[in-house]
Design goal:
By secondary structure, the protein is mostly helical. The protein has helices at residues 3-8, 11-22, 32-44, 46-53, 57-61, 66-90, 102-128, 130-160, 165-187, 192-215. It comes from Orenia metallireducens.
Length: 220
């Protein structure tokens, strides 16, 4: 597969998703350059995450039992990926003066999640082909955006309300949700229709948090 098609089903959908969510910040949209930086930071996070997860690849693809799979999907996949996406925002843009309302945490975190998904999708498309890339461009991108956005809501509230403990509430929540989602898929316990149903449910939850954050904006 040539470079054009690789980018067409990985980078382009990721950026379109970023634009879609970016427009939901109606009252004081964030600087585009910071949103793109968040996207790039998220993409770069794939590298250390891949290195950490690599030793567990066989346990994920061929687990000896369901208990092991459950522990690995939550304790490795959920923990490592969501912590990485959280960290690239918490220790960079979080400290910016532009991060001045709750919805900012959502938008920046979604951008990081979509950057992560874009590079991950590019690698999967290269290995498994165009069809897999197309499915992941929709489903995987949206699920990463949802998990990161949920975390971002709590990250924004933690900063604006000066309640650092909310960070751990959000992070723990998405680690478990991500782990359970992957466990159900890898174990084969759910059909494709139920997978799509879960993706839609997470998206609806995310939108409810976005609406709540937007309505609480001091710039309204």
């Amino acid at each position: 597969m040539n470079l054009f098609w690789l980018l067409a089903v990985s980078l382009l959908p990721g950026l379109l998703w970023v634009y879609y969510f970016y427009r939901k910040d109606r009252y004081e949209p964030e600087p585009a350059n910071l949103v793109i930086k968040a996207f790039i930071y998220g993409a770069l996070a794939v590298i250390p995450v891949g290195l950490i997860e690599a030793p567990f690849a066989k346990l994920i693809s061929n687990p000896p039992n369901l208990v092991t799979l459950f522990l690995v999907t939550i304790g490795v996949i959920g923990l490592v990926e969501e912590t990485a996406k959280f960290a690239v925002i918490r220790y960079t843009i979080y400290n910016s003066d532009e991060f001045d309302e709750v919805v900012d945490g959502i938008i920046y975190s979604i951008a990081a999640g979509l950057g992560f998904a874009a590079l991950e999708n590019l690698l999967y498309t290269y290995v498994f082909g165009f069809k897999v890339g197309v499915i992941r461009a929709i489903v995987t991108s949206l699920i990463h955006a949802s998990f990161s956005g949920i975390m971002g809501y709590y990250l924004g509230k933690a900063k604006l309300e000066a309640k650092p403990s909310l960070i751990w509430t959000g992070l723990l929540q998405v680690i478990i949700l991500h782990g359970l989602y992957d466990f159900l898929i890898i174990s084969g316990f759910v059909s494709n229709y139920l997978v799509y149903g879960m993706v839609i449910a997470f998206y609806i939850y995310l939108v409810s948090l976005i609406n709540r954050a937007v309505e609480s904006s001091p710039f309204k």
